[in-house]
Design a protein that fits this description.
Blueprint lengths: L5 E8 L7 H14 L4 E6 L6 H5 L6 E3 L2 E3 L1 E3 L2 E5 H7 L7 H12 L8 E8 L7 H7 L3 E7 L12 E9 L13 E6 L2 H8 L4 H4 L4 H20 L3
Parallel strand pairs: 1-7, 1-8, 2-6, 2-7, 8-9, 9-10
Antiparallel strand pairs: 3-4, 5-6
């Protein structure tokens, strides 16, 4: 496992960009923290590293004795691989050099402390990259998709379930091909607006339909973690 102090590391995957995955991961992280869970957030989407901005973290990545120090925002220990690379002038690096640059950091080189959950925001289709999933130390995946998207890319990791975004439906416990449906999140313009300003919906408008749906998805996800990964 990449981070020995983490009990459960979950990757959030999507088959395309623009489905609201990053906003959802941020909102879930804040919800878990508000429920008393020790939770960390790792932005591993190197194509669009904006999860920490949506969380409200404006500080640059810090290190001490070669160890990456997460930024604590709203009770979430947060770290961005993309920001870390940018701070070192490596944002355009790919391939073997990228792997060499990130290897020490991912080999228990980020001090998250002891956490029940690590939520990892993955780039679209990253769930098919077995070596990358292994480097991140992920235990399982959660798929994030639009309601009409029935795709299910191959992945070597167990999939705990599916969360549908921009949804109009509220009924049913199954997604495409019998996938466990953890939640359906309705469209809410405030989710985009608040995220852009670094203010999570769950803290600013906890009683909105979208915030309630995210909370229900978080509760369902936690049940799946307990039943599938704890033992």
């Amino acid at each position: 496992m990449a981070f020995a102090s983490i009990e459960h590391a979950l990757g959030f995957a999507s088959s395309r960009a623009g489905v609201g995955k990053t906003a959802l991961v941020v909102e879930l992280a804040v919800w878990f923290a508000s429920r008393g869970h020790s939770v960390a957030l790792l932005d591993a989407d190197l194509t669009a590293p904006d999860a920490l901005g949506r969380l409200g973290a404006r500080d640059e990545p810090r290190e001490q004795d070669g160890i990456g120090l997460p930024i604590d925002v709203h009770g979430v220990a947060s770290f961005s691989l993309g920001r870390w690379l940018e701070a070192r002038g490596l944002s355009g690096v790919r391939g073997e050099l990228l792997e060499q640059s990130l290897a020490p950091l991912l080999d228990d080189g980020i001090d998250f402390g002891r956490c029940e959950l690590l939520l990892v925001d993955l780039a679209p289709l990253a769930e098919q990259n077995e070596s990358w999933l292994e480097a991140l130390g992920l235990d399982a995946l959660v798929r994030v998709a639009l309601e009409a998207d029935a795709s299910s890319p191959e992945t070597p990791l167990p999939v705990l379930g599916r969360i549908e975004t921009f949804s109009h439906a509220h009924e049913g416990a199954r997604g495409p091909r019998g996938a466990t449906l953890l939640g359906r999140i309705p469209f809410d313009p405030a989710l985009r607006a608040l995220g852009s300003s670094g203010r999570p919906l769950g803290l600013e408008a906890a009683h909105s339909p979208a915030a309630k749906a995210i909370a229900q998805a978080g509760a369902n996800l936690w049940k799946r973690v307990q039943s599938r990964l704890s033992g």
